[in-house]
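Technical appendix A lists one of the benchmark inputs used to test multi-chain prediction within the project. The record comprises two sequence entries:
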Amino acid sequence: MPVVTPGWYMTLAAVLFVLGMTGVLIRRNALVMFMCVELMLNAVNLTFVAAGRAAGVLDGQVAVFFVLVVAAAEVVVGLAIIVAIFRRRETASVDELAALRG
Amino acid sequence: MVELVVFALMGAGTLAGAVTVVLARNPVRSALGLLGALVSLAVIYVVNLAHLVAAVQVVVYAGAVLTLFLFVIMFIGVDRSEDTSETIPLQRKLVAGLATVVALGAAVLVSRGRFSWTPASGEAAEIPNGTVQALGGELFTTWVLGVEVTALLLTIAAVGAIALAFHRRSAETPTED
């Protein structure tokens, strides 16, 4: 029976991160892009937990806490911005938000 | 044995949820895929003895953040499906190439097997038990400054969200649009 080593968790986290990155790059609905950013943050959280466990310290889980708080704050402000943009422009597609194009 | 089974099941659940997030046309399906991924990750945290982190993951992420996402999806409306045609030439291929490079880099790093942060003795370290008591003690002694800064950050985020929400059109400059 194979033993689950930290490398397995790192692999899972890497795949999760790549999936999130792909989503951010190919999707154009701002909400879905936000969800993909959450996926990337969760991949990093998984590496924190697995690494902290392998090193035998609690610091990894403490780091996850701070990442969670920053992610929550980011979601609150980001969704408020998306709603504010939607009220004015009636769209959540990042392709149509090109007012800053030079 | 238990960990292997949990890793296989919940790892598959996490990846399935993540793929759903990326590929689903309907944002509600994306949100539900995200929910599946987050809950699966919480179970993985439990096998790693990160009990408090798992609980917070379910309460904050699957509870608060997902509800907020669904609320905004309902507010914006889901009836208009996203146009999936690509306007930027080569973008899909570049993304695929970039994803392959990142995945291969990670695979190389992982396949080397040993990480510099694992104990040098080769013996498995004692698994830290992330109970409320242990994690709380750590947070409010060693990391108390971080906790205070976090409180400031959350206050700023709440104030910013309220300011954005109560922004009125009549207050805008008349030259816009």
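The mean pLDDT of chain B is 83. Residues 131-177 of chain B form one domain. Comparable benchmark entries are summarised in Table A2.
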